[in-house]
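Dear colleague,

Thank you for sharing your sequence with our group. We've completed the structure prediction you requested, and as agreed, I am returning the results in plain text so they can be pasted directly into your records. Please verify that the sequence below matches your submission; if there's any discrepancy, let me know and we will rerun it promptly.
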Amino acid sequence: MLEENQRLQKQVTKQDSLIVSLQEGNRVMQEQINLLNRELREAKKEFDQKLQAAREMGDRLVADRQKRAARISELEKVNRKLTGQTQWLRKQRDQFRKAFHVESKGAKTKILPQSLPTVAKATTQALSQHGYVMMARMVTDQKAVYVTEQKRALPPSLELQGFRNQYLVVLEKMGQDQTKLSVKADFERVAGGGRVLEARLEEISEIELRLIQKIEQALKHPEKA
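Please find the predicted structure tokens below.
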């Protein structure tokens, strides 16, 4: 009987030891599970942050692409507009040049011993001082063309006549200190009641020569032109 009790006691002790070992194993296993869960949560959190950052970057790229596309569309519209304006200006320039070749025929000319810039300055000075407003101009290093607005003077009385006149002035560089001056006047007489009278050729010639004289005067004495 005593031996049986001792044997049973040994089995109980062995079972207790096994239970303690199992409990310790469970504790270690739980700690490993907790560690894995924590690592999984941290990994998921990092992944979610990276995913959110990627989405935000994607949104910015889409928005930036849309902005670039809108900017490109805007620039294309501006380019088309500028292209149209350039074509229009070229057309106007060509028409101006054709009109110039026609209108400059028969102009009074004179070769002046001064440079193109000097004569150009004297020309604008003389026109301004005598009441002529510039309507159009084209200036290069070889040529300058000036077209004035029409200057009008109403008849002071029925007995006296008024006039209206418009100048086309062309300067061409002939050398380092030599410029060709051409003056064409569109001159008309205006009688009482607003009737327009055709001017005589001598009158037109006199008007053209008078401007040439004023330009020469401005070249010699700028302060007295």
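Summary note from our side: The CA atoms of residues 55 and 61 lie 10 Å apart.

Kind regards,
the structure core
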